[in-house]
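Progress narrative, Year 2. Work on 3-isopropylmalate dehydrogenase from Pseudoruegeria aquimaris advanced from sequence curation to structure prediction during this period.
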Amino acid sequence: MTKTFEIAVFEGDGIGPEITAPTVAILKRMASASPDYALTFTDAPAGAAHYAKTGESFPESSMQAAKRADAILLSAMGLPDVRYPDGTEISPQIDLRKALTLFAGVRPVTVKAGQRTPLALPEGKEIDFVLIRESTEGLFYTQGRGEVSEDEARETLLITREISEKLFRFTFELAAARKKAGRGKGRVTCVDKANVFRAFAFFRSLFDAEAARHPDLKADHAYVDATALWMVQKPWEFDVMVTENMFGDILSDLGAGLMGGLGLAPSADIGEKHAVFQPCHGSAPDIAGQGVANPFAMILSAAMMLDWLGIKHDVPAMVADGNRLREAVEDVVARGEVLTRDLGGKAGTDEAAAAVLETLFVA
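Result:
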């Protein structure tokens, strides 16, 4: 029996609509070829451009569409010259994280053989790890509510038992799934600064409590500064890493750099009931409308969405299609024949997306 899933689509700002359209087209093509699942898509207006036009950044109807949907596909959001009166950016993606308690920010980092990377990888080495960033609290807890006086400024870091226990449970389950699939070593690393901050010592203690429930997996710790060093020196050693919100924000960009740029960096923000899938890069308004934006991170985020839906609803065909779509992008990038400008090539958005579609259905 065919299972139908509703996807709420936030097409975003700047290049957002340009990379969303071919991604949705690919998803429609894949779903139409499968007897096991179907996809419907609901447009959900939001973002900086919508705010500039209407005075509203996140309509209630769009929030309700997100809550009703089986998954949320969200494109690049924000415009540097469109801000709230207090000077802060318009970030519906952060609103969604908080409203839907999307505590696990999942950032895969993958560099396959033949793929260009700023690193000189040793012969036979590839990079395949996942960074999990807590996405609702940490140093982002008081976003927009920090205290600023003439002489000082304060922000509050918050780490709670409730969210951390959910985060670590999710992390170890992901590591177990990667190990079972042959993609990971069954190793989980807690990235913190427990030698300086009591909050991170608390974070680490909760990690250790969850680790004790998974004797079949290896658990260890690393300070965030050392982790940044090792991500450059020996990134192939990592499997699954989990960390606080701000540390994860920084390290995920370093991971994107290992892959060659944000144009190859997908992400997911996952909670117990909802999940948002979004490229890590920004809206790049300087190239909007030129047809040259890189769609690969958006397409890879869609692949993560298929995988998550397939696991959550027990639809193996969706998991398989998620893997096929991810591998198709990786193959196109590794071949190096059809790359966008940010990756050193000359292909436009549509040509890059067409190469992925051809790899899926012709190769």
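The mean pLDDT is 94. The chain has two domains: 1-100+273-363, 106-265.
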